[in-house]
Every structure is written in structure tokens, then in C-alpha cells.
Amino acid sequence: MVKGVPLNYPNKRINNRKKKGRKMKEKNLEEIVVKQNKVRVMKVGNDNYISLTDLAKYANSENPANVIIHWMSTRNTFNYIGLWEHLNNENFNFTGFSEIKNNELGRESFTMSPKRWMAVTNSIGIISKGGKYSIGTFAHPDIAFEFASWLSPEFKLYLIKEFERLKAKEAKENKLDWYANRLLSKVNYLVHTDAIKNYIVPELTDSQKKYVYASEADLINVALFGMTSKEWRDNNPDIEGNIRDNTDLLHLVILNNLESINSELIKMNLSQEERLIKLNNSARRQLQIIKENNNVKELTSLQKEVNDTKYLLN
To answer: What is the DSSP letter of 194?
Structure first.
């Protein structure tokens, strides 16, 4: 029997899309606190760009955009960011820069905004994003530190200190990620070279084997956890996240392997029922093989260290 769809279902989908859009915009953002001021840091390539908009709020919380424009319109700033682009940007429009420098710079009416700077010079050191989910203006640390110094030399020093803490946190996490990947390789090697007959992953019922699953993700969920994502949410309405967010490290290792195995089974044109049975058998075998492995125990300790590090540095 098909359950009725709530009247507000479409609105929920729209709201979820909006939330997802905001999350996508924010996924590359970190946050530091500089003298009680929250300052966002955004990953751009391999660099961390600092929010000039947030820095400007230190001087004018109501209209930070005007603070940035005023700073960019000074002769020293214009020449500094121009030189930075010349040294670091192979696509820098030096002709456009020179025209403004020769014809406008120094006049009382001269103003330079981030968007105009980007349009005229094809800059990479300053980026400004508008639109519905505007995140403001960000700049390379070389430029952001110069702006902070213009605001207040003291503020600049505090900014550098907090930024260095963020970089140290990233370096530690990258090192832990490398070590975790190394241990995962060892665990997977063990899975592919050992064989044990005792299983603790749930066995499938006949109805589960014959059911047609809407997504490959749910197929793997049933093979490993014995339930779909929706079934888990129905059983755990007060827990945030989904079934995969709340599982342990052992199951995540196996989950990663099952996704690879399933892709190969699809290429073999096996039916969903056949794949489900094979994936469940593989999951039960893998879990028994790796549950007492020392590398997995190290990974568990490593995960705790990562979580402790994030707690201490946040």
C-alpha cells in the first residue's frame, strides 16, 4: 500500500535544495577568530584566501564594502596589488592596469572596487563573488595581510597568529590523512588475501533479496547494514545524519570496498538480486577478517586523534 504524499512535500524539496546550495557554497570555508571578529578563510586551489569583507568589519561592521573600496583606491594599494599580480599571475592584464594608473590614479574622483579590479586586470589575488549566496570579497594572504595592516598593525599581527594556527591544523590533518590511507591499504590487502568463515553482518531475508532498490547506495546499505537509509531514519528519528554518518570505522572500510565490488558486478550484467547476495557475502567475510586487525585498531585511534585535534584547535 502506497502512503499518501504530504501536501507540503514539494516545498520541502525546494527548501532542501536551498540548504544544499548554501552548504555547497560553504564547504570550502573555514573560520578563525581575530580579536573577537569572525573571519572566513576559503580554499582556492592550494591557497587559503582570507575574507576582506570580514576584515573590513573590524573598521565598519555596517558597510565593509566601502572600507575595501577606500583601501583599493589609494595609490599605495593600487601599486602593491598590481605588482603582486604581475609577479604571480601570468594572465594579468598589464595594459588595463597601466591605463588606469596613467589616466585615473591620483584623481579625487578615482575609485577602485574588487569587481572592477577583477574585470579590468583579470586578477587572481582578489576575488569577489556576488549573487544570491554572496560570500563577499576574498584575497590571497599576501594581500589580506596588507589590508589588515592598513586597518591596524595590531589587528594584522593577531590575524597572522590565527592564520598560522589554521595552517598548522591543516598540516596535521593532512599528515593524519596520509597515515590513514596507508593503514587502509594494509587493511584492504588483508581483506583480499585472507579467508575466514564466521560472519556477523546480517544475513538477508528472502524478501530483501527480491526487493528492487531505488538506488545503488541503498543496495549496498542493505548488503552491509541490513536496512535502507529510509528504514534507518525511521528507526532513529532523533539522530542527526544518515546511516553512513553514524556507523563505525570497520563498516566504513567495508563500505568503500563494496562500492568498488558493486561497480565490477554491474559491468558483469548481474541482476540486482544477484549482486545483493554477493555483496552481503563479501561484507560478512570482510568484517570478520579485519575486526581484530591491528591496522584497524590504529585507524580507530587515529580517528580519535583527528577528532581531538579538531576540538582543541577550533
So the answer is: -
